[in-house]
């Protein structure tokens, strides 16, 4: 597979997220040209599972948020040592947020490829440049623009509908 095929798979996950009333962001993690994890955002679904704010905060403290990158990272770490990330490329439809960009840096991700910029929370260039600050962990390259218009269109479709869980974000 090539970059565009991996990004297309991430877009498929974002489509699935949209069908499930989630923010339409999808990702795939690729090791040696093979997908080892693929996920979609799961923030709204997680609010249905957890009954109260305390439980939500406690669960997030233990597992991270339900951004697709964090869900996939947790699944990868269940099956592989963290050192694998040094050879893993991430394909994600939207620029990773500041938290996810930082986690990817700490895991020493090989590279990140994304569709569109995240002008509100972007951690790899739009707001902060956490991926290439030479003062901390090894830097990782980012590549922007794969299926950019498709990623933006999915976000527009989502924000045209009502997000009933949106008011619960902390």
UniProtKB/TrEMBL annotation:
The keyword Hydrolase applies. GO terms for molecular function: tRNA-specific adenosine-34 deaminase activity. InterPro entries: CMP_dCMP_dom, Cytidine_deaminase-like. PROSITE patterns: CYT_DCMP_DEAMINASES_2 (PS51747). Residues 1-126 form the CMP/dCMP-type deaminase domain. CDD domains: nucleoside_deaminase. Pfam families: dCMP_cyt_deam_1. Keywords: Hydrolase. GO terms for cellular component: cytoplasm; nucleus; tRNA-specific adenosine-34 deaminase complex. One of its GO terms (biological process) is tRNA wobble adenosine to inosine editing. This is CMP/dCMP-type deaminase domain-containing protein. It comes from Pneumocystis murina (strain B123).
């Amino acid at each position: 597979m090539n970059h565009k095929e991996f990004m297309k798979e991430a877009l498929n996950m974002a489509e699935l997220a949209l069908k499930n009333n989630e923010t339409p962001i999808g990702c795939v993690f690729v090791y040696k040209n093979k997908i080892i994890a693929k996920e979609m955002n799961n923030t709204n679904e997680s609010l249905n599972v957890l009954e109260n704010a305390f439980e939500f905060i406690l669960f997030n403290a233990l597992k991270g948020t339900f951004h697709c990158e964090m869900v996939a990272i947790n699944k990868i770490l269940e099956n592989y040592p963290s050192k694998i990330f040094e050879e893993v490329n991430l394909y994600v439809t939207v620029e990773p947020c500041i938290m996810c960009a930082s986690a990817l840096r700490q895991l020493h991700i090989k590279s990140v490829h994304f569709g569109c910029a995240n002008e509100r929370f972007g951690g790899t260039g739009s707001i902060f440049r956490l991926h290439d600050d030479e003062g901390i962990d090894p830097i990782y390259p980012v590549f922007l623009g794969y299926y950019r218009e498709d990623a933006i269109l999915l976000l527009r479709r989502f924000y045209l509908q009502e997000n009933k869980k949106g008011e619960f974000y902390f």
